[in-house]
Design goal:
alpha+beta; 4-stranded antiparallel β-sheet; 12 helices; binds flavin-adenine dinucleotide
Length: 385
């Protein structure tokens, strides 16, 4: 355990209460205004949510993976846009730094990331490189004791709010693929770094993405993550491995929320003189959703436990991401069905979740990429026998 059981219990209960009392009532407004109110962001910071997984010595709560997923199981029971706000600081926007940063880099940024004073973003994807991330073309040319970055990064979560970008760029153009890639810590406001227009998305309004453009963006030598060239891609993959467990926990939470909403609706809505919950065909939808969400919860908990025990969980993390993100898609679809016409109307919110959860099958590695990761590692396992 990274924190004692009682502290964890209190944190999980506080987050559950915060979600129920503060966030759920704001879901519709956040979707309409495409913004999370500033006072809510401040309350999230006050609860320590920006620093859940940042080590205590840098001002975070230092939760291990098992503890973090317990919090995500509660935080995810509302619009995913709220979670997205703190998601990068606890995941892809800080963990490269935590795993591979120099002590000086950690001291410089982690305390502010933990307090939510600085928002971190992870800039890997480009217009020409998504699933095939190792083919990225953003360049980082050495210039004296610094580097000059050129390229465009696409769909970068929290980029409009970010103060710190972990940018993946090619330091060695002679080495194609992963080996020539390095990671850089680039601060917002650095000359040559600019942002594109905010993307108009299918769902998750309130969470923002945009292009990050690097045009002769000069950074000093100490912006090189971990002071090592050529290891950036490994850093990115380690960060994504971990992030997949967190995203899977959020999928479980959204599914549980939708099952609860569907159950209540089915118990109240009457047709043919009785609540629709009494019809076995409706019960089948509820039962399938419950069983699938439970299976995903067990997978996430077990994978988190294995990771905390120091085991390699690349296969398991991809299994979780694949199963949980597909599962929540099916659950959201059934939730719309159980709500009938009301499920199609904005007023009930179910259609919003239906759109929101579609993203989980795409980012941090599509379902197809998870399948490839699982199968590739299975083949490695038999080759080692
Ligand atoms: C809202 C949002 C937020 C995002 N946030 C970030 C972020 O913060 N940082 C960041 O770096 N990126 C981010 N991304 C990018 C995201 O990770 C990519 O969109 C994703 O990895 C897929 O890449 P792509 O869009 O280029 O699709 P493509 O790679 O072009 O894939 C298109 C289709 O082809 C399939 N496909 C591709 N290769 C294979 C293959 N070998 N075998 C079988 N099928 C294949 C894919 O599964 C998919 O179905 C975000 C994206 C979105 C939409």
């Amino acid at each position: 355990m990274a924190v004692d059981q009682e502290t964890l219990q209190q944190l999980v209960e506080s987050v559950a209460r915060f979600v129920r009392e503060r966030l759920v009532p704001l879901e519709d407004r956040v979707a309409r205004e495409d913004a999370v109110p500033a006072d809510v962001v401040a309350e999230m910071a006050g609860l320590g949510l920006f620093g859940l997984s940042i080590p205590e010595e840098y001002g975070g709560l230092g939760l291990n993976m098992s503890e973090e997923v317990q919090v995500a199981f509660e935080l995810g029971k509302t619009s995913p846009a709220f979670r997205s706000l703190i998601g990068t600081n606890n995941g892809i926007g800080s963990h490269g730094l935590i795993m591979d940063g120099t002590e000086e880099q950690k001291q410089r940024y982690l305390p502010r990331l933990a307090r939510g004073e600085l928002i971190g973003a992870f800039a890997l994807t480009e217009p020409g490189s998504g699933s095939d991330a190792a083919s990225l073309s953003t360049s980082a040319e050495r210039d004296g004791n610094g580097y000059v970055l050129n390229g465009t990064k696409r769909y970068i979560t929290n980029a409009p709010q970010a103060g710190l970008f972990t940018v993946f760029a090619r330091t060695d153009p002679g080495k194609p693929g992963a080996d020539g890639i390095s990671a850089f810590l680039v601060e917002a406001g650095t000359r040559g770094l600019s942002l594109g227009h905010a993307d108009r998305k299918m769902g998750q309004q309130g969470a923002h993405t945009c292009d990050v453009i690097l045009d002769d963006c000069r950074v000093s030598g100490d912006a090189l993550l971990g002071a090592s060239e050529g290891v950036g891609f490994k850093t990115a993959m380690k960060v994504l491995d971990r992030g997949r467990i967190h995203i899977s926990a959020v999928c479980v939470a959204v599914a549980e929320r939708l099952i609860e909403d569907s159950l209540r609706y089915a118990a109240e809505r009457e047709q043919f003189g009785r609540p629709i919950a009494e019809f076995q065909l409706v019960q089948a939808m509820l039962a399938d959703s419950r069983a699938e969400a439970y299976a995903a919860r067990c997978m996430v908990e077990e994978t988190a436990r294995r990771r905390d025990a120091g085991r390699n969980v690349t296969i398991e993390a991809s299994c979780c991401k694949m199963f949980a993100s597909e599962m929540v898609g099916r659950v959201a679809d059934r939730a719309v069905q159980i709500h009938g016409g009301a499920g199609y109307m904005a007023e009930y919110g179910v259609e919003r979740f239906y759109r929101d959860v579609r993203l989980f099958r795409i980012y941090e590695g599509t379902t197809q990429i998870q399948q490839l990761v699982i199968a590739r590692n299975m083949l490695k396992e038999i080759a080692q026998e």
